[in-house]
Amino acid sequence: MGEFKVHRVRFFDFMPSGIRCMAFNSKADRLALARLNGSVEIFNFSNNYFQEKVIPGSDSRSIEAICWVGCDRLFTAGLNGEVVEYDLERLCPKYTLDAFGGPIWTAACNSAETHFAFGCEDGSVKLFEILPDKIQFERNLDRQKGRILSLSWHKTGTLIAAGSLDVIRVFDVKSGHSVQRILVDRGPAGTRNKDCVVWNVAFLSDYTIVSGDSAGKVQLWDANKGTLIKTHLVSKWDVLSLSVSENEDSIVAGTSEGTVIQFQLLSPTIGDAETQWIRTRTFKHHTHDVRAVTETKTSVVSGGLDTQLVICPLMDKVEVKSSESVLRKVIFPHRSLVSCAKKPSLLLFQFPDQLELWRLGGTDTVGKPGESLPVTRKPEKLLQLKRKGDDHICCSTISECGHWIAYSTVSSIRLYQLQCDNNNISISKVSKLPKVLRSAHQLQFSADSSKLFVASEQATIHVISLSRSECKHVHTFKPKSGSSAPVHLLAASADGQWLTSANRHCEINVYNLKKLKHHCMVPVYNSLPSAMAIHPETNNLLMAHADQQVFEFSIVDKQYTDWSRKLQKEGLHRCRSKWHTPITHITFNPSAPSQVMLHDTHMFCIIDQSLPLVDLKAQFYSRLTPKDMSETDRPSKNNAFKMCKKYQPLLHVNLLEDDWLVVVERPLIDIHSQLPAPVRQKKFGT
After folding, report:
1. Do the beta carbons of residue 76 and residue 65 sit within 8 Å?
2. DSSP 103
3. Strand 250-255 to 208-213 pairing
4. C-alpha to C-alpha distance for 198 and 215, rounded to whole angstroms
5. What's residue 637's pLDDT?
6. For the residues 76-95, what does the mean pLDDT come to?
7. Cys staple from 485: which of 140, 156, 387, 504, with CB 3.0 to 4.6 Å?
8. Residues 452-496 pLDDT 10s
9. How many whole angstroms separate alpha carbon 102 and alpha carbon 124?
10. Predicted confidence band at 574 (pLDDT cuts at 50, 70, 90)?
11. pLDDT tens digits, 479-489
12. What burial class does residue 318 get, using C-beta atoms within 10 Å of its C-beta: 0-12 exposed, 13-18 middle, 19+ buried?
């Protein structure tokens, strides 16, 4: 693999936000989830569960409910009383509407996708009509005493079930009146003086209402008669979330204890035609409140206060040893939040509300392989740059020389110039930016720090020339296909001649910066690019995709290289199938140009293009020279693929000068230590 001196960085205090709600779109095979900080994320389940889009949050936005309409319209509602529809191309709110009912606690769309119902603080259920380009208020249903906390439409669209404190009501949509009032049992005798909060309701097509409440009960009710069918006591704490499968033969419930319980509609005895709801599975993958659950055709998906998205396969519905049979826990974003200035050894950390600039520490000691060296120069926090306004930071970058910092929100771009003299640092904002710069999906400086490339919200790329006195707009590149898909990756060549961009339609465009024109498009592959980089010597473009495939494309020859074709034919090794998180960064070893380094959350690996690929059936040796082999056998076991799993979880890996490797980790124990205490549970022997 080669020898490196490693900067092991653990002072990036990135803290993911908890998951509040989610909605699965079976037509598009995509999951949308909203976090407690107001951000929205979209995962493509048909593309290796890749985090396809991220819409940054805002301090003024609080989301309690999220809903899909069709394949490409997404809505949220929250405690600020507003309904938001999002522009999924520009990745920002399209418009907002005030429901005029106070905080909105819940929202639901009917099966025909013609109307929304919103449950409000003032006890009203508000109906909005869904139009092609907006939603429009239609009328209120009868106002009730107490806030409306949960809603569910019947499949016919004629009835709505609404849950609040101690009661479930059934509304007739046409008349707007309450036609059924169901009182919910408060639970054991010791809790009868407390209100029973009906956190969730689900209205089945056979007129059964399923409810989950703060007394830990999942109950089934007859909506026509208003009577209780069955009670399942599943927890001593709250049942916070419910979801029903598309064909209504399965229910999943999430609790405050971190458990997810599945109920299935089964016959209690073999051969019996009568079916009933039976508790079948219990999943324990969370430590805190499970605020959101949903069920796909092959898995149960859950998320909550512990920040992780858990995709748990239903083994009776998936093929054994397939990618769908793997338990997945998504904690970190599928993009890099760290930028590196290699020459001055600076790291820029991106948080939603600020940027932090750190100078790496150092040592004067020379040690042996595997030895930890004492730090003689401690890492130093040079700068904390807080963003302006309520909008969260969506992208940021630092130049190679460390003299420029840029970041963007959904409403503005800011550029700063840095001056570092020994221990003194000064920062000045560039006040006059070209008018074409409004917001950016991605930012990238050129290798010589003379240009800034801005991937705009209009799917174009602006080239900005930088100098101490001014910054000027030089050119705007547009994709040859005319695609409006947002650009999520940029890569520039070291010689300043080439710029590549990748968008959400899987298109990778190559532009000539000398001639200021489009050069070519890489053949479209049906998986989103997750990372890419241009080789500093050959100018070949190396690309990694969400499905873990790696390609090399010759920009000069406009075709895949022989090495890339051989890689696709022979593959790296079967152990690569164990990767379940996307590759988020690619870099090259300046001391050994044939070595490519790439990493995901759980490992980093080096691919040496000068060595033969691994035999797929051979035993895999990750070490460069296995110690347990003789000197004569070692060369025959040398292969192109080496990997290291010593550092986890990885947020960034990069190579500095003089064979220094910087590894940015975020230990899970540090994240868990910042979470609120979970509900107290009795443990055996305590």
Report:
1. yes
2. S
3. unpaired
4. 9
5. 58
6. 95
7. 504
8. 999 998 889 999 999 887 899 999 999 988 888 999 999 999 999
9. 10
10. low
11. 988 888 999 99
12. middle
What tokens does 513 get?
């910066």
Whether 28 contacts 72, CB under 8 Å: yes
Is it the case that residue 539 has pLDDT exceeding 60? Answer: yes
pLDDT of amino acid 624: 43
| Contact criterion met (CB below 8 Å) for 414 and 389 | no
Examine the pLDDT at 629 and tell me if it is beyond 60.
Answer: no
Residue 199 main-chain phi, psi, to 5 deg:
-70, -35
Q: Residue 671 in contact with residue 331, Cβ under 8 Å?
A: yes
Asked whether 621 and 615 are in contact (CB, 8 A), the reply is: no
- How far apart CA 17 and CA 510 sit, in angstroms, is 36
Q: Band of the pLDDT at 625, cuts 50, 70, 90? A: very low
With beta carbons less than 8 A apart as the criterion, state whether 408 and 415 touch: no
The answer to whether residue 208 scores a pLDDT higher than 70 is yes
Give me the numbers of helices (H) and strands (E) for the chain, helices first please. Answer: 3, 55
Strand partners, 318: none
For residue 649, whether the previous peptide bond is cis, meaning omega lies within 30 degrees of 0, is: yes
Judge contact between 336 and 651, C-beta under 8 A.
Answer: yes
Distance separating alpha carbons of residues 10 and 133, to the nearest angstrom: 47
Evaluate if pTM is beyond 0.70.
yes
Helix (H, G, I), strand (E, B) or coil at 273: coil
Predicted pLDDT at 578: 62
What percent of the chain has pLDDT above 90? 75
Token representation of residue 271? 């051969």
Nearest to 339 by CA among 392, 382, 384, 395: 395
Q: Residue 7: name the closest of 348, 276, 342, 362 by CA.
A: 362
CB 428: neighbour CB atoms within 10 A? 10
Cα separation, 64 vs 227, in Å, equals 29
